[in-house]
Each structure stands twice: as C-alpha cells, then as structure tokens.
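Teaching assistant's notes for section 4

Start the section by putting this record on the projector. Ask students to predict, before seeing the second block, whether Helix-turn-helix transcriptional regulator will look compact or extended. Collect guesses on the board.
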Amino acid sequence: MSRSKRLVDLVRALKEAAPGALTAKALAERFSVSERTIYRDMSKLIESGIPIEGEAGLGYVLAPGDGPPMPALTWRQAETLWRGARILSLVAKEEGAQTAARSLAALSAVLGDDRVQRLAAEPVLPEPGELKPVPAVLGALERAIAAGRTLRIDYVELDESEMKIEGRPSALTTLGDAVILTLLTEAGPRPLRAERIKRLTVTAANTGR
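Reveal the predicted structure now:
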C-alpha cells in the first residue's frame, strides 16, 4: 500500500473509531507497518491540518465535529479538489481562504510531494490574461446569478462549438481577467469561463420532466 493511500485510510479508520481512540500498535497491525511509520504518518496528517488529537503511546482520536467520513476518491478527483482549493485560497475572503488553505494542506498530504509539485507548476488558470469576457456575455451571466433559479444556457464558444448546459447559477468569481460562472447541475458543480464564450442565450429550464 502506498503512503498516500495509507494516509487516507488512516483518517477513515479514525472516523470509524470516533469518539474512541486507536493506538499506534493497533494501527500498525491493521496496516502491516511499524509503529514508527504510524507515528510519522500521524505527524504528517496533523501538520496538514487534520484535527487529530493524541500522541505516541496513548492513542489517537479524531476531534469531534469534523464532518462526514472522507469519501473514496480517484487520483484525478483528488487533484481536481486540490486545484479548486488552491484557487479559493487565493480569491476567497478571510475565513473561506483559511479553510481553503487547510483543505489544500490536507489534500497535499494525501497526494504526495511528486503530484503536488506537478500541480503547483501549473498556472492557476490556463490561458491567463489574453482573453477578456464579451460585455454582453458578462451581463447575461450576472443576470443569471440574480435570477436565482435553474436555467438553461445555450452558448457558442470561441471555436464555434455549440454547447448547452442546465443548472442553477451559484457564484460568479473573478480571478484576474477570468470570470467564472459556477452552475449547480445534476452531475455536480460545473464552471463556465466567460472569456471563452462568444454569445449565449439564457432561458428558464424545463424542470417538469
């Protein structure tokens, strides 16, 4: 088992055992590693912001109120969450930015140094600074946010691709020259980048199907 997967499984084991504690010896036997390895893993998790209490010899417990159990994620899903936390840590205000930074640290511990270094080398957003939103497109997206209901958006991208998406606009985020509309769809959050859209039509969605 890789260390990254073991870190995820350690957090899951502590969640399952809560509010009880698990000793390093019990965890070492469970994951077929030495107690010294468990001590190092716990130190890594604590440093990354996971609210684990306890110490070597006494057992470890996950602090209460930490939310639902950690879901199983593919590497691609974990990397996507890392990218999202990175953006929020830069653009969110105060508490939101702090929470995003803690999430970023926790995800970094799971992903491992090699993956994190590769992700950190990527630009926060691709194609920065060259494209700017068409004013009419930006105005339409702002009105979509104000509508506060599920909408259908038909749009044409810069390469003339015709697209359509249905969902409830939840946020309009500015990052440099980029403007991102987040739609809550049946498949989950979906971002639309305004500067990639030439024109669009916004209509009320058919929610009666």
